[in-house]
Amino acid sequence: MTEISATFGALFSPASVAVIGASDNPNKVGGRPIHYLRTFGYTGEVFPVNPGREVIQGYRAYPDIGAIGKAPDAVVIAVSGDATLEQVRQCGAAGVKAAVIMASGFAETGEAGRLRQQELVALANDSGMRLVGPNAQGTANFASGAVLNFSTMFMEVAPRDGPIAIISQSGAASVMPYALLREAGHGVRYLVATGNDADLDACAMTAAVAADPEVRLILVYLESVSDPAQLARAAALARARGASIVLLKAGSSERGARAAASHTGALVGNDAAIDAFLARHGIWRARDIGELVRAVPLYLQPCTPGQGRTVVMSHSGAVGVMAADLAERHDLPLTELQPATLRELGAILPEFGTAGNPLDMTAALLGKGDMFPRVLQALGAEPQADMVMVGIPVAGPGYDVEALARDAAAFSLQQGKPLVASAPQQSVREAFVRHGMPAFVTEADAIAALAQFAAHHRLADAAATPPWPEARQLDGSGLQDEADSLALLAEAGVPTVPHRLCDSVDAAVAAYDALGGVPVVVKGCAAEIPHKSEHGLVHLRLTDAAGVARATRDCIDTLQRLGVASPRVVVATMVKGRHEFALGVSVDPLFGPLVMIGEGGTLLELRKDVVTLLAPFTAGDVKAACARLRLAPLFDGYRDIPALDLEALASSAVALGDWALRHRTALVSVDINPLMVLAAGEGVMAVDAVVELKGNRSATEAQQKRN
Predict the structure, then answer these.
(1) I need a surface site. Which of 215, 411, 496, 695 has the fewest CB within 10 A?
(2) At 44, phi and psi to the nearest 5?
(3) pLDDT average, residue stretch 614-640
(4) 0.85 cut: is pTM over it?
(5) Are 470 and 661 in contact, with CB atoms under 8 Å apart?
(6) According to the 3-state scheme, what is the secondary structure of 183-226?
(7) Which helix or strand (DSSP H or E) is residue 249 part of?
(8) Is 602 domain-assigned?
């Protein structure tokens, strides 16, 4: 057993537990874990530690950890923050493997608390002990009864072992989904609230429970992703055995928005990095607690969603129409039933029914007990029907709801196809749940759950963890001027506009001649002035030497007024693309380079029609992402506008992402705006760019910061 797995074993299946700060009152923080250990079936030894008592909740009490005479596997430390440090020292000396620190007053209180927290962790780790917390609600394994947790929720909602784990940085956000799941009848095996994540964090805990072969679903709440590598490991462990992770990430960093020189950083930000990271590793990102738990019964079924093609059926035409609208809203494809299936359904349904999708069984369902199983049998033979939703808006006397639920369960089991029901009546839902079928109050919830389940499976199937190349350095630091930025892009493999860098009027006129006397643009070139158009430093459509000379003189004068010591200009061929795009990179210190693709031009930040990908990625990934843009129809051509060169755009994005990954420790950001995208087959061309570098430092230092 590895050291880390031994640590988790000590927390989740300890042979003995000590509670420091133990109380005889089960309603106090120091009394609650002891009460839970007694109540929830823990069979190991319990050692309350309190110098003022001889017996606590029926257990012999000890004055300190050393008086026990042996090292408990796990310790709950429920004393004040001021006293915690000394208790950790004593536990380390006694040989304790793991401790849950419930005290607050550490990093959450400011700099002094952060330093005290660092001291706490160093003290524990020096002795080989690992910590959960501080400021932690605690851990719980309801299979072993090792509930090292002070939440009152377990007094209100009795636990039951099951195939679900809940990992949270927040105590409240751990018990909210727990309560919803238990009220729905689902069992939960692990519940962990890690608090300040000073040592054993929520990501590590997710990886630990992902290794349990009986856990089918892990629900995670994070406010920060402190260890992406552990979260990626958890996802790989879960995927390898068909388990799923659904994660609710609250809050979003504005770090990217503070990057004054980088449009890409402002548009991408930390939240997009998290989205891309989670998608890469097959983790579904929920947006609220409701979405976190909504599809749980589908994840616990043995069925898979196939391609997600769904049949909606009801004895109400209204339910069918509303469900069809909802399916379109959630991008859930409804099945195109084959002619043979339609003929068979037509023979089963009454003449006024609808043999289609949505399928309307009409109120005739009330008097024809064999209609429902016969319809299901017909759908079972339909090769393009992957999932089924049954809407039951009303049922009463004459409706054999038990038979409907039994037939639905038999269909799902025999065909291996997910089936869900929606019904506003609790009695109807309870009948389906008794037979193991997911049941929802509304068709909106049912459709949303099916859509999430199908999309998550597609995400997991596509998940990959490509290796990263060795990091390389780049010469220079800070903002690069346009000429240097274009040179770096050319090195990366992004086509760049023909141009010349000039420091005088005569050099600019010579550059105009060298470029073939075609229309050119003259732009001021200075690293400290990244946004040239705001200062009148861009002169377009120049067609003669005199115009080039005037524009150059104007740019040099303006740069001098702005304090630029060595003013220069770029003279570049004027390129007219079919559409202006933006292509950029923002390097996240935790997740690596994110490449942004979207509509370019001066309204980039206003329109925000962008998609992001986490490097490395493929041309196919780029095309799939670009299909989500609002301007996506332009790739196929629109009216008299020819199709755009999506292949060239994808190729440039891949090249830029690969280059950024190689130089991730040296690069801050890249902004290419505009990237002119030409007609299909004609390519793309970067006509303006700003690259920002971190400066020279070792790849090792940067990697350490990233980790």
Answers:
(1) 695
(2) -85, -170
(3) 93
(4) yes
(5) no
(6) HCCCCEEEEEECCCCCCCCHHHHHHHHHCCCCCCEEEEEECCCC
(7) strand 244-249
(8) yes
